Every structure is written in structure tokens, then in C-alpha cells.
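We examine the record.
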Amino acid sequence: MAAALTALLAVATFGVVVFYQVGGEHGAGVVEDVAPALTALIAAAIAGFTGWRSVGRRRLAWSLVGASAFSWGLGAAVTATYELALNRTPPVPSIADVAYLLAYPLAVAGVMSLPTAPSRTSTRGRALVDAGIIASALLFIAWSFGLGSVYRASTASSVAVWVSNAQPVGDIVVLSVLILATLRGIPQRRGRLVLWLAGFAANAFSDVAFAILSTSGSATPRADLFEIGWVAGYALIALAAFWPLPAGGQAAEERLAGLSQVAVPLVSLVVVAVTTLAEAATGRRMDPLIAFPGAALGILLTASQLLTHRDSLVLLTKSRRTEAQLREQSSLLNQVVGHAPAGLARVSRDLRVIDANPRLCALFQAPTPVIVGSGLSDYIPEADIAKVFGSIPALSNDIETIEAAGEITRASGGKVWVQWSATPVRNSRGWIEYYIAMFEDITSEHEAEAAALANLASLERLSKLKSEFVTMVSHEFRTALTGIQGYSEVMRDDTVTPDEVKEFAGDINSDAVRLSKMITEMLDLDRMEAGRMKLNLGQVDINSLLGDAAARARVSSSKHIITVLLGSGMPALVGDSDRLFQVITNLMTNAIKYSPNGGEIVLSSSLDGGNVKVGVRDHGPGIPAEFIDRLFGRYERYEGNAKNQVIGTGLGLAIARQIVEMHKGRIWVESKLGDGSEFLFTIPLSS
């Protein structure tokens, strides 16, 4: 803003001094001679500094424009030296004229070097032809309405006339190129070009006025006011350096030709045609020299048509090549998507499937017409959809992918576990156009993970049971050994009667038998689970085994009523009588153990198809339903309220299950909490 105000004040001061002859004719003359040269040299310095700070084509453009201003300022300085120091006008031609004329090709080269100017060869040729058409048209019009009459009426030498008219012609060329560059300019960066255009237009105003005055010989002191165009022009060119650039202002960009860029050369041709018609209508004689810009227009128009045709052929070739490449890429992309190992879908913003690949159809178990148009909620739970798509912002410039895993419902109604993700595809403004969803079947991985977790839980439970078993066995062993040690110490240290010795010996024997039984049970179970236990098969009378077991139970427990319900006519079965008796004994022992208050225990046998069915029923506390499935496992023992009162290793039922299964039979329990339990097993008649 400060630079603009300074430039405006300087131009206004120049106009006032020259128009009102402030300081007299000599003082105003000094200002009139020095101000244009000084303004041009200041503009050259500012443009050169701007070029030094710029990069690429912008540096070259500013450097050339600065060189143009310097050349013109040098010519103006020579002219001022002649008029102030030598008190005469410079000869024509002179070194000042050379400097003036050199400024125009430098300015044209500077404008053509702008980043907004075309960079490809074909586009650059088109721009030069269009600039030539505009320049020829402007020259045609200017010659018809002013320059031609001035040239014909001039009394100066031919060289002076041509030199004077060469500057307006140079201005026309510079303005033509600048008009096209401004039209091609990016709107955010067009301010500098507009200032350049205004500056060179102001220079052109003064050049035309100077040409008319110098060739007509009608110059007056007040006519020097026309030099204000040079002062204002180079001030505007200098101010262009202060015009702010947007972020990334150093980036060059190739732009397509717009309608205005194409229309300007054509409009100039229309104006030439109108000018020619006006000349013919008024009966004015056409100047022979006007044939030169007219011929140039014809040649350039022909060149323009040839370039248009060539560009059309090039564009057609590129279009066909691009179309073929696009088809090839589309085919390749379709093959990749079609053979992708994961299910892929394009999903609209309202979460409906737009496209689906074959893998997704197989995963959802539905044909493409069924899937396309359906909503994701037909397959995926609403909660999962809300979780994934609710995490994606509607407006963003980032590429984010949200993943989830869960169970989906196929079109057939089946369930499958998938790992799926959603990625938004956004437009240039950051708004979502659609989503890319990818689905991968992870059912096997999920099942393996679930099995691993279950195995881990089972191992943890087994480890816990094992620890409890070791604690329990240690307790049982210590209890038995304590009894043996105590009785033996009494027999050793105290005086006891023979009857007491027998009683103590019986207790010691019971504890030893219990220890032996626990060790035998552990060894038997290990051999059975390892497959090292063999059965001694033979004919077995199951009723006889039940009778023997009942007799032993009556001896060992006087609190219980042992009832035996034997099936009549029971055939003999094939099995190991000792092991089957062990099963019955274990079941009887448990029945007695878990009903310490007495009660009835019922042993039964019956035929069940081709099997012998044996049952042992007690009236104990019963077993909870959630514990029944675990009852026959290793180390499992239901203690209920009798915890720490039940003696044993907890291996009896596990051993019973192993023996029954070795006989190809089955063992189970039927129980109701608070109403006792009945353990049953079946053995095939022919094992």
C-alpha cells in the first residue's frame, strides 16, 4: 500500500510540474527529461531484485523485464543528456533509439518466460501465432485510423518516421503477448500481469503521442505532459513486484487454453474486417503499406489453421492411446479385483452395495444381482456398522481405514466370522464419494482361537485340580501314616494287653490297606490312560459279582441297608470279572461314603437290549447338574457340605469310566440335588 501511494504521488507531482510549468520552463523541462529515465531505472532495479529472489521461469521473466526497463531508461537518460547538457535534441537515429527499440524484444521475451505462459512446443507455437494475429490486427487498425495519416503527412526524414513508428509497433507486440499471458494466468496470480499490462499500455500511449508529435513537428511545452504515460507505466511495472502471491506462488502450472484466449484473436480479426468495411464505405483510399499487416494476418491465420489441425490430430492420437491404456488398466483392475482372495465391495454413502467381486458373492452366498443394491445391515449387525462408519469423519483430507471383526449373516442364513474394513474415497474437496469395503473369512482362525482359549482354560483347570489332588493325596497319606505311626508307638512304648494289640494291629492294617488302595488306583489309572492295562476276559456272572459286593458292603457299614434287585435269567457276559468287581466296589464305596448317615443303597441288574445294565442307588445329598459332566474326570470329586470329611483320592469314578469303556460300555449318573444319585453302567453281553 505504501509503495502504491508513493508511486501515485510521484506521478501526480510529475503531471502538476509539467502542466503548470512549476519552476519555470527550464525547471519543468528538467523534471520532464529526468523523471521518465529515473522511473524506468528504478523499475529496472526493483524487477532485477525480484528476479534474484525468484526461481525458475519467474526469475528469468523478471530479469528480462528488468533488462527491458533498464534499456529504455538508458535511452531516456541519453535523451535527457542531449537536451539538458547539450541543449539540443538527439539525432535520429541515435544510441538512444537503439536502447529504446531493444527494450521491446526484451519485454516480449520476459512475458513469454512467465510460468503462466505456455511451456510445450506446440502450445508455445499456438501462443506466438495468436499474439502475431492480435499484433497484426492492432497494427492494421492503428495504421488505418492514425499512424498511416501521420506517416503520410510527416515532413521528417523517412528514417526518423520509421524509428518513431517502430516504438508503437513494439508496444503493440508487447501488449498482444501480455493480453494472452493475462488470459492464461491463474486468477490468484493475475494481479501482477494486470499491472504489467496497464504499465505497458501507458507506455504505448506516450509512444503513440510522441510518434504523432515528432513526425508532425507540432510539439509544444504543454505537449510534454504526454510523457506522464512513461512515468506511470514504469511505476506500474515496478508496483507489480509488490503484488502479493498466494501460498506456493513459485509453482509453475500449465493451463489449458480457455474460451477467452481463443476468442481474442478471432475478435481482432472481426475488428479488422469491420475496419476494412468502414474504409470502403467512406470511400477512403487504402494505404498501400497496410497490405503488410494484412498479409501477415493471412499468413498467421493459415498457420493458425494448420496448428489447429495438427493439434487436433495430436489430441486424437493421444485420446485413442489414452483410451486404449484406460481399457487395459480397467481390464487389469477388473482381473485383480475379480481374482482377489478377499471380498471387495464399493459401498454408497447410504451404506448400500454398488459393486461386489466374486469372492464377496461366495462369502455372502448370494449372486451379484442380489448383493448389489442391498444394504450392509442385511449381513452385518447394526452395532458393528455404527462402530466402523461412525468413526469415519465426513470431511477430511486424510486416508483412513477402520477395521472390525465379527460374525455376519449370509444370505442363506448361515453365520461366518469375518475381518472387514471400510476406507472412504473422497473428492478433491475432502467429502466422501463412496467407501471401499473388504471382507476376509476368518472362521477357521476364530474357531482355532476359541479352541485354544478353551484348551488353555481346560489346562488351567486341570492344573488347579492337580494341585488340589496333590494336596488331598498328601493329606490322605499323612492321615494314614499318622495312624500307623501312632498305634505302633503305643505298642512299642506302652504296656498293652493282647486284645489291645489286636485292635491296634487292625487299625494299622486298615490304614495300610487304604494307602495301598490309593497307590493302586493312581497306578491303575495311569496304565489305563496310557493303554498299558489289559483285560483278562472270561465268562462273568454279573449277579454273582453284585451279591459279593453287597455282602462286603454289609460287613463294612452297619448303618446302611443294602438291597439287591437282581434280574432273573441274566446271561453271562464276556469281561474281566476282577475289573468289573472293582467298578461295582468303587460305586458301592462312593454310595456309602456320600451317605454317612445311613439309609438304603440299592444294587440292581437288568437286561437292556444286548447289554447288561447295572445300577447303584443311594439316598445321599445328590449332585448338582453343572457338576455331573465333570464327575468322571481325573481328580474330580464332588464334596458338597462334606468337604474335608470325604476320604479318598477322587480317582475311583475316573477308573470306573476307564474300565467300563475298555469293555465297550458306557457309564453315567442320574441325580437330583437333595434326592440321592444313581450310578449306572452298561456292558455288552459280548465284549
